[in-house]
């Protein structure tokens, strides 16, 4: 039986790495894509021939097609495309400039569009696209307008493409996590204009967890990965066009 293959952009670290591991554990082959390979990914690849690193920049349209071609050459199959690569930074409106906006929009919006476009050409019947969005794609927050705009866009892209690609039996969904304790999130929260506002980051997250979550904890990258594995499986064959919160009950819907 031909193994199923997942392509994960931003798959070298953080949530993307957790997603890559979860697909690997579920018996998939995984092409984990990023600009550079993390030490964790290199170690995992050395232990398991079913995961492979591929260099790409999601802002470059052709890189998405090259990733798919690499997956097909390597494993002979391609079944799901996961747009996980992203960029976030809190910034006051008065401090926006072209460099900042271009980096957010080229990564978070164009990067997702190029991934969906390339995947739609190559995915066969029952293929899936999963876009990693954010709870910030459903509600705004201070000093976060550009990032929120980009993730609102991801949710709109997801819903629109579910309708457009549905006749080809290609399902498109998004996953919307709240804070996941990755190194990049913890570093970003150190900024004085982040919601932590200069507080100790651990104390801020503890307070947020107590006040905002229903389950009194934050989700893990592994839980985001498990949601993606489910959405890519036949068990989710009737689910498309959904933007699913993985937020421990911060925003019940």
Automatic annotation (TrEMBL):
Report the leader peptide range.
none
Entry's InterPro entries? NAD(P)-bd_dom_sf, Sc_DH/Rdtase_CS, SDR_fam
Q: Name one Pfam family in it.
A: adh_short_C2
Q: Keywords of this protein's UniProt record, alphabetized?
A: Oxidoreductase
Report if keyword Acetylation is assigned.
no
Annotated family:
Belongs to the short-chain dehydrogenases/reductases (SDR) family.
Among PANTHER family, the record links this protein to: 3-OXOACYL-[ACYL-CARRIER-PROTEIN] REDUCTASE, SHORT-CHAIN DEHYDROGENASES/REDUCTASES FAMILY MEMBER
- This protein is called SDR family NAD(P)-dependent oxidoreductase
**Naturally occurring in which organism (per UniProt):** Kiloniella laminariae
């Amino acid at each position: 039986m031909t193994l199923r293959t997942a392509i994960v952009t931003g798959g070298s670290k953080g949530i993307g790495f957790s997603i890559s591991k979860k697909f690997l554990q579920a018996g998939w082959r995984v092409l984990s894509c990023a600009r550079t390979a993390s030490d964790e990914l290199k170690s995992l690849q050395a232990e398991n021939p079913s995961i492979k690193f591929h260099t790409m920049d999601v802002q470059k349209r052709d890189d998405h097609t090259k990733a798919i071609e690499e997956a097909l050459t390597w494993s002979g199959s391609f079944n799901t495309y996961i747009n996980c690569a992203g960029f976030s930074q809190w910034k006051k409106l008065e401090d926006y400039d072209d460099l900042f906006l271009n980096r957010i929009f080229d990564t978070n919006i164009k990067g997702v569009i190029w991934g969906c476009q390339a995947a739609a050409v190559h995915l066969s019947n029952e293929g899936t696209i999963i876009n990693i969005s954010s709870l910030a794609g459903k509600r705004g927050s201070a000093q976060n307008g550009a990032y929120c705009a980009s993730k609102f866009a991801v949710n709109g892209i997801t819903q629109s493409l579910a309708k457009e690609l549905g006749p080809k039996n290609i399902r498109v969904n998004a996953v919307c996590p709240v804070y996941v304790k990755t190194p990049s999130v913890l570093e970003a929260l150190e900024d004085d204009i982040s919601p932590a506002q200069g507080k100790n980051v651990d104390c801020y997250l503890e307070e947020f967890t107590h006040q905002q979550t229903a389950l009194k904890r934050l989700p893990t990258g592994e839980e985001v990965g498990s949601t993606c594995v489910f959405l890519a499986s036949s068990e989710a064959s009737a689910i498309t066009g959904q933007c699913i919160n993985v937020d421990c009950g911060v925003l019940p819907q």
